[in-house]
Amino acid sequence: MIDKRNGINPVVAAVAGAVVGAGVGVAGAMVMGNKKTREKISKVLNDAKDKAINYMEGIQKQAQDKKDEVGEKLTKGKEKVKRVTKSVKKSLDSAIKDVKKAAK
């Protein structure tokens, strides 16, 4: 994703960085013959992956919450417009009747 105002979306850049870092770590671990080192790297990568997933889930939840909030406000706004429109129409109808009565 590209943010038209600032270039690359920072969330996408963070996830891409995590993926590239994971790839480099895996490649380094493959080169290393020490099992203990490979296990440490694997744990660090799994922790980083879990943090990235949690971060993305948090961002998605925030986005959904905002979407829901906007939807609720939009629904309330539409209802208010309907009420005001109905009231204005009723007032105009009454005024028209009064004008017709006065014109007779």
Task: Please explain how this structure is put together.
It is a single chain. The protein contains 2 helices and 2 strands; from the N terminus they run E-E-H-H. It is mainly alpha-helical. It has one domain. Strand 1 and strand 2 form a beta hairpin. The longest helix has 69 residues, at 35-103. The chain is rod-shaped and about 105 Å long. The mean pLDDT is 81.
Give a concise summary:
The chain has one domain. Helices cover 88% and strands 4% of the residues.
Order of helices and strands: EEHH
| Overall mean confidence score, pLDDT | 81
For the largest beta-sheet, the strand count, sense and barrel status come to: 2 strands, antiparallel
Cα(first) to Cα(last) distance is: 69 Å
Total separate domains = 1
Number of E strands: 2
Number of helices: 2
Helix content: over 70%
Structural class: mainly alpha
Q: Tell me the strand order in the biggest sheet.
A: 1-2
Query: What is the CA-atom radius of gyration, in angstroms?
Result: 30 Å
**Unreliable runs, pLDDT <50, ≥5 residues?**
none
Principal-axes geometry comes out as rod-shaped
Q: What share of the residues does DSSP label as strand, in percent? A: under 5%
